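Q: Convert this sequence to structure tokens.
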Amino acid sequence: MLELKNICKTFYPGTVNERIALDDVSLTLNDGDFVTIIGGNGAGKSTLLNMVSGTLPVDDGQVIIDGVDITHYPEHKRAKFLGRVFQDPMTGTAASMGIDENLALALRRGKRRGLGWGITKKERASYVEKLSEFGLGLESRITAKVGLLSGGQRQVLTLLMATLKEPKLLLLDEHTAALDPKTAKLVLEATDKIIKESGLTTMMITHNMNDAITYGNRLIMMMDGKIIYDVAGEEKKNLTVPDLLAKFGKGFANDRMMLSGNE
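A:
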């Protein structure tokens, strides 16, 4: 579903601030893979997602989704292939519009929009049904302005919006990092449910080692712009946080956020 071939990215090349963000990274995701990506600050995790989404251009290499080379596609042209949820719950939704209106916009992504479209009763009923599965009471507030929702409620809505059209690839960029632990757990469980039910191919960046181990069928660790560890199946299931720290602890020594979530 995703092929990254020899991806390179350098920031501020030729200056004293030159930094290699991605160093000849190659990666293949099979259809239905749920990959968690972990690594210390500056490891290249978010840069990798930005290369895939088109937020940043690659310096060298190829990005291929479902057999289509999208390396030189602009960000808006990649949108039909991708769904993305960001760290900030305020990103990805229109605060002044209702929950149903936000979902309707997501459903119509990639289509021409005019004054003629409206939300049908059948469509609204499907939104109510989907929202009710999360146990947050959003289904009874379907017309409420999104700006009135809590961070967790908004992030679940954003997640639903990103997956309504079942994208080729779902990108989750530390999408629970801004939430309190209880809400983060709820959002992660909702994420796991949606991914499993739809069989979505997914890349999820996380700072939390426990979450990286618990969720997904594959774990990738990055350091200094390279993939240094790639584990799947039974080997991943048997992983523990002490295992990861024993192998790669030096790479996280100064990353308080990562370590604090796993004490």
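The radius of gyration is 19 Å.
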